[in-house]
């Protein structure tokens, strides 16, 4: 067992924002939605799952490049694989087992799938942090992946524009080059509500008004609990940056405004300036990808880090995580001096820009495939059409779902 203080957090992260996307304007026009309301969502587009993509392929494609760049000795120290998802493909078998296999990770590994709507990745992060900080296995790494497939269609109305597909991979360790977590500094707020749910593998339910109320309530109550646990905290002064779970940027703006009104004396103009300075840099990638569910907070974190200036030094960040149903947490940490270069090496922005843009007719044709990818099937054969292969965005081979035999999913690299 180790003695003395330990530093734990995010050593590296990467994002898979899908191979294809549709612009918010094209989708809104196709659905006949009010452009003024669409503008308030602050979205440029959303990712779209192709027929050979599912939560397993998203997870593997998010993590592969990051792991390929690791020293083999470091890769061999991955002892835990945690997958946070509300898009499970089996009621018993964990997605983590598929991920472990196709990433060719060490056999000396704990595998676990975690579910609590969009909060699941943060719950898994805290579980992993406790394991690493305990000193039970010095030098160990934990691979945490948040992966999901959006099921929204025209029945979701405006929420359809904000529902993305993809994954975020985090490598956690005692060398947190990206984000060193403040151990023991957190605030919690949870209660039961039916704001969103997935009562079946191809059915998604959302009460937009109830979800907004719950999100705003959890924002202020989790920070209030953080303030009770951590001395001398001021929302307007303690943190250089604020990062939120981002279903869409307009929701984040409302939460920031509510929290600033409750915990600070800033007037509306100063609050708006604060949003632009401390929050808006983290909204760039969510605006292009849409809501990545439990990966959404960490997609926003990636966007923030990629927006840091070249001269950036260590800075404090506050993070708000929310999951429907509901559970929430406010936590914090320090972005290290190596954070910007570490995340920039993943080339997340250029890869998002290289995705294939879909027209509305193509999108509508593809939508049923994404909605059906979670259905239990005994047999299925898929042939990833060559026309989709350039959509990889120049990142090399992608894992693709090729078929299902006796409920066992088969994957291959394309």
TrEMBL record:
InterPro entries named among the record's database cross-references: HMG_CoA_synt_C_dom, HMG_CoA_synth_N, Thiolase-like
Domain of life: Bacteria
Record-annotated Hydroxymethylglutaryl-coenzyme A synthase C-terminal domain positions: 271-367
Keyword Transferase: yes
Domain Hydroxymethylglutaryl-coenzyme A synthase N-terminal residue range list: 5-173
Entry keyword Transferase: yes
Pfam families: HMG_CoA_synt_C, HMG_CoA_synt_N
Keywords associated with the record: Transferase
Family of this protein: Belongs to the thiolase-like superfamily. HMG-CoA synthase family.
Protein name per its UniProtKB record: 3-hydroxy-3-methylglutaryl-ACP synthase
């Amino acid at each position: 067992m180790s003695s003395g203080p330990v530093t734990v957090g995010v050593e590296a992260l990467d994002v898979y924002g899908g191979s294809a996307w549709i612009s918010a304007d094209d989708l809104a026009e196709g659905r006949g939605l009010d452009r003024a309301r669409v503008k308030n969502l602050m979205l440029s587009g959303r990712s779209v799952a192709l027929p050979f993509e599912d939560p397993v392929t998203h997870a593997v494609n998010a993590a592969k490049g990051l792991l390929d760049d690791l020293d083999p000795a470091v890769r061999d120290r991955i002892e835990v694989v945690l997958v946070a998802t509300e898009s499970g493909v089996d009621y018993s078998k964990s997605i983590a087992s598929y991920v472990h296999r196709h990433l060719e990770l060490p056999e000396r590994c704990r595998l676990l799938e975690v579910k609590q709507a969009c909060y699941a990745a943060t719950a898994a992060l805290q579980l992993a942090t406790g394991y690493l900080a305990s000193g039970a296995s010095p030098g160990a790494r934990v691979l945490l992946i948040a992966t999901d497939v959006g099921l929204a269609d025209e029945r979701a109305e405006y929420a359809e524009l904000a529902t993305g597909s993809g994954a975020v991979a985090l490598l956690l360790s005692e060398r947190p080059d990206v984000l060193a977590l403040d151990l023991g500094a957190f605030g919690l707020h949870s209660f039961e509500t039916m704001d969103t749910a997935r009562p079946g593998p191809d059915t998604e339910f959302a009460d937009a008004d109830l979800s907004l109320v719950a999100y705003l309530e959890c924002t202020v109550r989790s920070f209030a609990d953080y303030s009770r646990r951590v001395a001398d905290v001021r929302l307007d002064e303690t943190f250089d940056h604020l990062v939120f779970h981002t279903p869409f940027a307009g929701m984040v703006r409302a939460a920031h405004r509510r929290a600033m009104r409750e915990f600070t004396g800033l007037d509306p103009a100063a609050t708006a300036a604060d949003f632009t300075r401390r929050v808006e840099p983290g909204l760039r990638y969510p605006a292009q990808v849409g809501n990545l569910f439990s990966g959404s907070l960490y997609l926003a974190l990636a966007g923030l880090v990629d927006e840091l200036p070249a001269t950036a030094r260590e800075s404090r960040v506050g993070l708000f995580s929310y999951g429907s149903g509901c559970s929430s947490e406010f936590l914090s940490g320090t972005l290290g001096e190596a954070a910007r270069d570490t995340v920039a090496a993943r080339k997340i922005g250029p890869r998002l820009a290289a995705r294939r843009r879909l027209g509305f007719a193509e999108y509508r044709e593809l939508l049923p495939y994404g909605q059906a990818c979670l259905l239990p099937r005994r047999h299925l054969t898929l042939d990833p059409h060559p026309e989709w292969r350039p959509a990889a965005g120049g990142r090399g081979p992608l894992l693709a779902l090729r078929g299902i035999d006796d409920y066992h999913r088969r994957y291959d690299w394309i």
